[in-house]
Amino acid sequence: MSISIQDVEHVAKLARLELTEEEKAKYAEQLGAILDYAQKLNELDTENVPPTSHVLPVANVMRDDEPRPSWPIEKVMLNAPDEEDGQFRVPAVLE
Fold first, then answer.
1. What is the pLDDT of residues 27-70, one digit of tens each?
2. Listed residue (15, 20, 16) closest to 5, CA to CA
3. For residue 36, what is the domain's CATH number?
4. How far apart are CA 95 and CA 90, in angstroms?
5. How many H helices and E strands in the chain?
6. In three state form, how does the secondary structure of 28-66 look?
7. Domain range enclosing 24
8. pLDDT in tens, 68-79
């Protein structure tokens, strides 16, 4: 499928892109190749292929959440730039 320079200019305008003449020609060729490939995919017989959201089976790979002892507060606060009453002190973000 052939894409015209005018089509590329239209898409570039919608995307608010400024393209050189060389870029317009390059993108017209590339977009045409993409549409040609999509047309080939349309020729495939997918009548007996069930619709799926993923090609591969999806399974939860997360580990079980198991409680563990926390670090002592004194050790955690060693990395704090500022601390008050066992809590991190940060600059105010609201006025």
1. 999 999 999 999 998 888 888 888 887 888 888 878 888 999 99
2. 20
3. 1.10.20.60
4. 14
5. 3, 2
6. HHHHHHHHHHHHHHHCCCCCCCCCCCCCCCCCCCCCCCC
7. 5-42
8. 999 998 898 988
